[in-house]
Fold:
Amino acid sequence: MANRQAALDSPPHTAHRPGPGGFRPDIQALRALAVGLVVLNHLWPTRVTGGYIGVDVFFVISGYLISSHLIREIDGTGRIRIARFYARRVRRLLPNAFLVLAAVVAATFLLVPHARWAAYGHEVIAGALYWENWLLTAEFWSHPVDFTHFTAVTSYWSLSVEEQFYLCWPLLLLLLFKLRSPRARFTSVAAVGLASLAGCVYLTAVAKDPAYYVTPIRVWEFVIGTLIALGGTRLALPKAAAETASLLGFAAILGSAVFFSGTTEFPGAIALLPTLGTGLVIAAGVGPGRRWHTPLTSLPPVQLLGDISYSLYLWHWPMVVIVPFAMPGGVLTLSARLSIVAASLVLAYLSKRLVEDPVRTWPRLVGSVRLTFVCMAAGMAAVCLAAFALLRS
Structure:
């Protein structure tokens, strides 16, 4: 289903150094699994009916990695350099996001029927401003939306949720860490998560489709990762328990992908299955030692797929939506689907290596928060101007 996207965030190097315990190939493998499920769900929606749970897997991962970084900074310095934190997010996420938006505008002019240009233009602007989830929420509240009329930018809803979370979470963590007791901190974060989960269960029951995109009711998924980060090495399990936890975790993720469908009341209480499963895998990896899955999760292709997962997410969905406009009858053949997979992988790898990594590590940007934000504003302006061309044509 087109309304089931995944957000792929948090820099790959962070997955390797989340804190005590060193290299974490299991987190990269979770990324690879999540993006693989999403791509399969979008290209073969009747086969991998619940692949949309990749978004939940990634929200938990992001909560763990980002909170681990923030907690270390607070513990070490007593504060968070907020501007630098946001600048790192900008350098990591925006270059490829803007590149894909620009490619979508160009492809829209070439392939998409003129009657759809206005919808694409509005969503490109919302995507560039990280407001896509609220645009979709408003559309669902105002009238039923046919999923077949989503645009090649609809996938940016999940990036919008993550960016909105990143905007608020460091400030909330800093406030909660004014509490001296680790138990009080843990309890306070858990309370935030429970309140979000309660809202999620309620809103999913009364308005499932708009509920899917609302940021506050997604916060509890990030909180699961945050609670694991707060637990730190205290969560290190005996080997047998860790093996069992990771096995149950992967089973919960894969089971959700197989047995959930577009009719599942999601993301209500049932979303606990893939999210807690992800938490089990992450928690099971705390501490030294190999796990039963290490020979598989450490394979270079798995690690590479995890490394380019964010870029792969960005590129595959526009092709899933736009390529049918160039196909006879608007139907994707098997060869076309396989070609989309191959093209997405190539574009993801190239944009990761040639765009994301150079920008993220460019010394001038790394050394200047102000320049980073100036470039962000310039990129947003350029994409929005291109989108206005669609609106005025």
Summary: The chain has a mean pLDDT of 91. DSSP finds 18 helices and no strands in the chain. The chain has one domain: 12-392.
